[in-house]
Specification:
Blueprint: H1 2-14, H2 20-48, H3 50-58, H4 60-69, E1 80-84, E2 89-94, H5 103-106, H6 111-114, H7 116-124, H8 126-132, E3 142-147, E4 153-157, H9 169-173, H10 178-182
Parallel strand pairs: 1-4, 2-3
């Protein structure tokens, strides 16, 4: 697939239909700015607003509606379920069949999310996958794996870091990473956000 995409990009560039620099900007925008920033705003609102958090975690219809309140929805995010990490339970999202991913809140799926290695290991060895991402959980923490589908996509509500009381939603959003909303990472501690 990667070779096909590169070949197609080369042909379109050679014919003058696309500008590689503009394409790079578009991809970077969806990968690192638009999508993950949207999800971070959803998480920050949930951390700061108990009523919003409750709606977000209630069920698919409520989660999808709560996310839409912030202006995020549409293709690849029609049906969303949000699962909450706690000190006793950690959630990890995967799509075992392909790469179903909630684009409106997380942007483009990273290459590792689409890889066969991640898709198979996340189910068989979730703690090993987490370790590969630098996440070590206490032994008593249950790891739960969620399989996204074309009909239902998942997002993780990461555990709110200690020391964030009194922070604004904007400050809280800066602590949320794409990986923490997939479950392969944790939210950043205050003072460590880029």
């Amino acid at each position: 697939m990667d070779l096909r995409v590169r070949a197609l990009e080369s042909v379109l560039t050679a014919k003058g239909y696309i500008d590689p620099a503009a394409l790079d900007v578009l991809i970077d925008t969806y990968q690192t700015r638009i999508g993950p920033r949207n999800g971070a705003r959803v998480v920050a609102r949930a951390w700061a607003d108990g009523a919003f958090r409750e709606r977000l975690l209630r069920d698919v219809a409520s989660a999808t509606s709560a996310i839409a309140e912030l202006g995020y929805g549409g293709r690849q995010g029609e049906q969303m379920l949000v699962v909450e990490n706690t000190p006793r339970q950690h959630h990890l999202v995967v799509c075992t069949l392909c790469s179903c991913y909630p684009w409106p809140v997380l942007g483009l799926p990273p290459a590792w999310y689409k890889s066969a290695a991640y898709r198979s290991r996340a189910v068989k060895d979730p703690r090993g996958v987490l370790a590969d991402f630098g996440v070590t959980l206490p032994e008593g923490t249950e790891v739960r794996v969620w399989d996204s589908t074309a009909e239902l996509r998942y997002m993780v509500l990461p555990l709110r870091p200690a020391g964030t009381e009194g922070m604004t939603e904007e400050q809280l959003a800066a602590l949320v990473t794409r990986d923490s909303m997939v479950g392969t990472g944790l939210a950043l501690a205050p003072g460590t956000a880029p």
